[in-house]
């Protein structure tokens, strides 16, 4: 196959280009090489520079026996600079063909960097397509905190969750929350197996003992929120107002009441729609698999993924992420409290408005931790690294920050702030600095000290 030759040629070409770039520093400003990462403080190589993905079309043929994935990804992107070379993120697999705008392109592999050199320069502003044909065993990714993510196999299929860096284990991506895109999925599995992508179900057609499940997500989505969970599932379709809800439950979890837990989603969606603004997406739902060894749930866009039957509060948590995390996305991973603090506080306000404890009582219980507790050493917006990005303080002290802000600026200003935060940033990306600025606007006061004390100081707040 020419791909080996191409690959070898590419290595030489890449070496030459790299040498050129290094030899002529003046060329740096006008470089035509897309950077191999976006410099995220926690995951510097996640994502790539030089282009902006518009759409992923993922055609996945999966057999659990042998854990074999045969796939084609077609990525539509826009060049944001002149490009002679750019990267995608992909782990493992054998690539049998790689084409840019229909023409074979040179490529090399370097860790999770798939380095592509199209035959012709891609001019800034131009839209182009990359087609990658690849096959092999998908990779489960082990995170700095030791948890499993990516394509996590189960006895009957796979539980597919990718926060923060699992996506390149099963599809070539610009794996950074900054680069949101729409997605189409065509997932082919043995008949009797259900495969679940994000968004709406377009069709499920069987042919010669295999079924192709087509799903479409028409709102921009961060790559880590994609899913293709598959296995034996009971799938039920219902509605919340105008939008379809898809609920899939592993038969092993049906006796645990999984469908009842998922049924609550409709009213939770209604609650947050009134509190924060209209539900962000054109479909919703949830998947309860039986994969308890994963140990967490994930708010995958439109369909939260549960490793087992969730508590009611977990359903509330994941649904709230559709607003905060999925529609309003972070820009850099150290701002993860913008997702988790908001979702944890959302659980509190849900309880408060449903006859449970008030958010202030939840705050008080959390605040009762002694100043000497290690909990206070990890401020939510500067938690210390990717190995603790999902640790307690990100969730709890993040939620406390919001509750303390509510008390400081008053309910009126606080709830209008949350609505405005969503309204302005729907389908977008944000930073902690953006939130502070908007909070000061709604609160009509300077809040530097407040946020410094709550988000950045490694000690228990005393005054704010
Ligand atoms: N975002 C998920 C939640 O809402 C947590 C994901 C944890 N991911 C991980 N790789 N540990 O709780
Ligand atoms: Zn969460």
What's the topology here?
Blueprint lengths: L1 H22 L27 E13 L4 E12 L6 E4 L4 E7 L2 E2 L1 E5 L2 E5 L9 E10 L3 E3 L5 E7 L2 E5 L19 E10 L3 E3 L3 E8 L2 E12 L7 E3 L2 E7 L2 E7 L8 H6 L1 H12 L7 E5 L15 E3 L5 H12 L4 E3 L6 H16 L6 H9 L24 H18 L1 H15 L2 E3 L1 H12 L4 H9 L8
Parallel strand pairs: 1-12, 18-19, 19-20, 21-22
Antiparallel strand pairs: 1-2, 2-8, 3-7, 4-5, 4-8, 6-7, 9-10, 10-11, 12-15, 13-16, 14-15, 17-18
Can you walk through the features of this model?
The chain has 464 residues and is of the alpha+beta class. It has two domains: 49-328, Immunoglobulin-like (Sandwich); 330-456, Neutral Protease, domain 2 (Orthogonal Bundle). It has ten helices and 22 strands. Strands 5-4-8-2-1-12-15-14 form an eight-stranded mixed β-sheet, with no helix packed on it. Strands 17-18-19-20 form a four-stranded mixed β-sheet. The radius of gyration is 23 Å and the shape is globular. The N and C termini lie far apart (66 Å). The structure holds arginine and zinc ion. The site of zinc ion (ZN) has 4 residues, from α4 and α5.
What are the defining features of this structure?
binds arginine, 464 residues, 8-stranded mixed β-sheet, 4-stranded mixed β-sheet, Neutral Protease, domain 2, globular, binds zinc ion, Immunoglobulin-like, 30% strand
In short:
This protein has 464 residues and is α+β, with helices and mostly antiparallel strands. It has ten helices and 22 strands. The strands form six sheets. The chain has an eight-stranded mixed sheet with strand order 5-4-8-2-1-12-15-14, with no helix packed on it. A four-stranded mixed sheet has the order 17-18-19-20. A three-stranded antiparallel sheet has the order 3-7-6.
């Amino acid at each position: 196959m020419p791909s080996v030759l191409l690959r070898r040629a590419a290595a030489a070409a890449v070496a030459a280009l790299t040498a050129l770039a290094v030899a002529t520093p003046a060329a740096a400003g006008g470089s035509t090489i897309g950077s191999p990462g976006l410099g995220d403080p926690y995951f510097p190589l996640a994502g790539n520079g030089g282009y902006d993905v518009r759409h992923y079309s993922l055609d996945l043929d999966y057999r659990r026996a042998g854990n074999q994935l045969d796939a084609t990804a077609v990525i539509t992107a826009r060049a944001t600079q002149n490009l002679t070379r750019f990267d995608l993120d992909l782990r493992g697999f054998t690539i049998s063909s790689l084409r840019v705008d229909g023409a074979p392109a040179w490529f090399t592999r370097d860790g999770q960097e798939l380095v592509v050199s199209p035959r012709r320069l891609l001019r800034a502003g131009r839209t182009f397509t990359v087609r990658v044909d690849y096959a092999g065993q998908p990779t489960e990714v082990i995170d700095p905190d030791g948890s499993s993510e990516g394509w996590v196999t189960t006895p009957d299929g796979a539980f597919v969750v990718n926060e923060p860096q699992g996506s390149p284990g099963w599809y070539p991506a610009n794996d950074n929350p900054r680069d949101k895109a729409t997605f189409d999925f065509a997932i082919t599995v043995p008949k009797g197996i259900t495969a679940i992508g994000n968004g709406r179900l377009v069709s499920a057609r069987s042919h010669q003992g295999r079924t192709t499940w087509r799903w479409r997500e028409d709102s921009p989505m961060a790559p880590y929120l994609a899913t293709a969970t598959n296995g034996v599932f009971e799938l039920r379709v219902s509605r919340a107002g105008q939008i379809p809800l898809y609920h899939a439950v592993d038969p092993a979890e049906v006796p645990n009441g999984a469908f009842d837990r998922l049924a609550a989603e409709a009213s939770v969606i209604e609650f947050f729609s009134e509190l924060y603004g209209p539900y962000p997406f054109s479909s919703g739902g949830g998947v309860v698999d039986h994969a308890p060894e994963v140990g967490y749930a994930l708010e995958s866009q439109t369909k939260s993924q549960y490793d087992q039957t969730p508590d009611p509060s977990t359903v509330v948590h994941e649904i709230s992420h559709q607003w905060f995390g999925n529609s309003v996305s972070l820009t850099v991973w150290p701002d993860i409290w913008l997702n988790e603090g908001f979702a944890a506080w959302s659980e509190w306000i849900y309880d408060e408005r449903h006859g449970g404890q008030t958010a202030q009582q939840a705050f008080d219980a959390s605040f009762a931790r002694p100043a000497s507790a290690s909990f206070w050493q990890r401020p939510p917006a500067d938690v210390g690294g990717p190995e603790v990005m999902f640790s307690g303080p990100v969730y709890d002290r993040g939620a406390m920050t919001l509750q303390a802000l509510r008390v400081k600026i008053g309910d009126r200003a606080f709830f209008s702030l949350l609505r405005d935060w969503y309204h302005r940033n729907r389908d977008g990306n944000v930073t902690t600095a953006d939130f502070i600025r908007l909070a000061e606007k709604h609160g009509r006061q300077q809040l530097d000290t407040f946020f410094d004390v709550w988000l950045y100081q490694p000690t228990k707040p005393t005054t704010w």
